[in-house]
Amino acid sequence: MAENSNFKSPKRLSSLQGGPSDQSSGAVPGEKTRDASLEGIDFERRNFLGKAVGGIGAVVAAGTLYPVVKYITPPAEKEVKDVDEKVVGKASEVPPDSGKIYQFNKDKVIVVNNGGQLTACSAVCTHLGCLVQWKEDEELIYCACHGARYEQDGKIISGPQPLPLAPYNVRVDGDDLVISKA
Ligand code: FES
Questions:
Q1: Cβ proximity of 148 and 160 under 8 Å
Q2: Looking at ligand 1, which atom is closest to the CA of residue 128?
Q3: Atom 3 of ligand 1: nearest residue by CA position
Q4: Cβ-based neighbour number of residue 76 at 10 Å
Q5: Mean pLDDT across the chain, nearest whole number?
Q6: Do 108 and 123 form a contact (C-beta atoms < 8 A)?
Q7: Which of 146, 149, 156, 157 has most ligand 1 atoms within 8 Å of its beta carbon, as the pocket-test mutant?
Q8: Best of 130, 140, 142, 158 to mutate for ligand 1, by most ligand atoms within 8 A of CB?
């Protein structure tokens, strides 16, 4: 450690080479004090560098972890207010003899066009919650999970479901398809 300090001190080097110095006699008495003081400076420098490197490491770690934590944390659900009526799409999206599912408030609603007769009811099967579909060939609403069958307006035909499908109103307004609470 003392050697290291000597390299950082031109005066010390000069005195070792016999050059001029403040202590031209080359007297040793002050040397120990100077070396000790230089060691103190080195220690403080190392201490400062250690803290600086630690600080930079903490910033880098935080910068790396933040996006990871953000990615795995589910976003807070936005509170969406229920509406009584909503334009869900275009009437042309449900041509005759077809059905299409739309989001309406927190429910999914199936709009059925059976030969021009429009109806709407919940698309969530009351058995275990699968989504139903319009079965054109049988003219009924069908749940493929366990075979529940409903009439076009959601009444039960057969199957394990305990309740009919919740009814909704549907109408065409210009080109728009409008669903509203029943
Ligand atoms: S969830 Fe529809 S029949 Fe079981």
A1: yes
A2: 1
A3: 146
A4: 6
A5: 83
A6: yes
A7: 146
A8: 130
Query: Does residue 156 sit in helix, strand or coil?
Result: strand
Ligand 1: distance of its center to the CA of 62 in Å?
Answer: 47
Helix H, strand E, coil C: the string for 64-118 is HHHHHHHHHCCCCCCCCCCCCEEEEEEHHHCCCCEEEEEEECCEEEEEEEECCEE
CA 145 to chain centre: 31
Per-residue pLDDT band at 44 (split at 50, 70, 90):
confident
pTM: 0.60
pLDDT recorded at residue 119 = 97
| Contact partners, residue 128, CB within 8 Å, separation at least 6 | 145, 146
Residue of 133, 48, 65, 75 lying closest to 99 (CA atoms): 133
At position 86, the amino acid (one-letter code) is: K
Q: Are 118 and 89 in contact (CB under 8 A)?
A: no
The token pair that represents 170 in the structure block: 């549907």
Ligand 1 pocket at CB < 6 A: 125, 127-130, 143, 145-148, 159-161
